[in-house]
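Need fresh eyes. Consider my entry:
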Amino acid sequence: MISEYGPTVETGIIPRVRCGRDKGVTFVELLIVVALVGVVAAAAYPVITTTMEYYETESAMQLVLSNVRESRQDAVDNRREWRLRFRLPDEIIVRRQNDSFRWVTDRRLQLPANVAFDRPSGIPSISIISNSKDIDFGGKKTFRFLADGSAVNNSGEVVSGVVYISHSSNPEECRAVSVFGGTGLTRGWKFEDGTWK
């Protein structure tokens, strides 16, 4: 039965109750929400940018470090020499000796975008290798791993060296990879709080 006030519970239909206005969102409310989203995005932008620079530079260092270590290990495992050449601004060429003792290119690698081999001015060199440039293996940008795992220059002399990596938009975001000639051991470095760690 339907009463004069509308449907009742007895009819199985629950009456609709109106509360306030039923029009939706006003244009002013929408503008306020858009403005708030813009403020949050503007506040987050510097944090996101800094984080991206950190991970791009860290990724580049890990790329160099892993390829240097892999080349050394392959030289020891296969009793063949491996040569690494670093070309400015951002290329690594890895060559190996084949069974005929001829040099063949194993791989060419590029650093991530916005990252290059560089030691920006104002960033000190690593103390173990003083006065080093962006890439320095005894004044050269190339070195070899011998079958015993040691690192040598093209003349066969044991050489230690370092490769510096920095971000183009933030020179303070700097990394380095060092190679200790006698053992061929490598280490990754991070420039933080004014010193290499």
About this structure: The chain is about 25% helix and 30% strand. The chain has a mean pLDDT of 86. The longest strand covers residues 170-180. The two ends are 84 Å apart (CA to CA).
